[in-house]
């Protein structure tokens, strides 16, 4: 995923999570709005967790390849004697 899209998705997910979290203290526990708010918290929290996992996996996949390219470049620039 492009970094701009990742940042946008994270910002939107975090905004929804924080808005649902701020409304929670003002809702009565037995009301339908409370259930919807808790569902919004669970869904947005799951979305954020999945997004963070995906971004970390993608970054970890790119770091070793960049490190290997630097080693290969260093080895090719200095001929062995």
A few lines on this structure:
The protein is mainly α and 81 residues long. It has two helices and no strands. Helix 1 (3-23) runs antiparallel to helix 2 (32-77).
Strand-residue proportion: under 5%
Main sheet attributes: strand count, strand direction, barrel closure? none
Q: What class would the helix/strand composition place it in? A: mainly alpha
The tally of strands reads 0
Order of H and E elements: HH
- What's the end-to-end separation, in Å? 44 Å
Can you tell me about this structure?
- There is one protein chain.
- This protein is mainly α and 81 residues long.
- Helices cover 83% and strands 0% of the residues.
- It is built from two helices and no strands.
- Helix 1 (3-23) runs antiparallel to helix 2.
- The longest helix is centred in the C-terminal third of the chain and has 46 residues, at 32-77.
Task: List the keywords.
2 helices, mainly alpha, single chain, 81 residues
